[in-house]
Design a protein that fits this description.
Length: 182
């Protein structure tokens, strides 16, 4: 995990954090999350999703830097978790890069003014600046998965025998930073 849940930035927005599958090694490098231009996509505000289609159908997966090291470590994590079921003539391979699915779109309630900055009272008539108290927020969640293929070998030739999805990372973020195509 890179940040603790519900930490907020200077604007009161949730800071993005990640939860790794327990099969991944300690020190697994969290990929870099790139921010896109907000003007290129739609976003939710306080009150949540208001689009016509379900949010997961319109959400654009986060732009993450995935490396060959990530690929090797995810495959090693899957093998650690499930490799005991391999026959001697079988191997795993991974379809890369991973795919993300918005599994929870999150919710942000409207914030409200608090006390004045000088005295801390809510009904201060002497002050013009008041503290802003951010509304309650439930993070959006992205589940990152890869397709794992099981190959069966007969000498030098192999054939695809099975394919399954392996979820290895969950990204939690403020719902207002999820990009939507609309």
């Amino acid at each position: 995990m890179t940040d603790t849940p519900n930490d907020r930035d200077e604007h009161g927005w949730l800071i993005t954090w990640h939860v790794l599958d327990e099969s991944l090694p300690d020190g697994f490098p969290i990929p870099t999350l790139h921010k896109r231009s907000r003007g290129d996509y739609s976003h939710v505000g306080a009150g949540g999703w208001s689009g016509y289609m379900p949010p997961e159908d319109s959400a654009v997966q986060p732009d993450m830097d995935w490396t060959e090291a990530h690929r090797i470590l995810v495959l090693a994590g899957f093998t650690k978790k499930w490799g005991r079921f391999l026959e001697p003539n079988q191997t795993y391979d991974i379809v890369w890069p991973p795919r993300a699915y918005l599994t929870t779109d999150g919710y942000v309630a409207q914030g409200h003014p608090g006390g004045c900055l000088d005295h801390g009272c809510e009904d201060c008539e002497d002050c013009d600046e008041f503290e802003w108290i951010p509304g309650e927020a439930t993070p959006a969640e992205w589940s990152w998965s890869v397709q794992i293929e099981t190959y069966e070998w007969d000498g030098n030739s192999g054939s695809l025998e099975d394919s399954e999805w392996f979820q290895f990372l969950t990204t939690h973020m403020d719902p207002r930073v999820v990009d939507y195509d609309m």
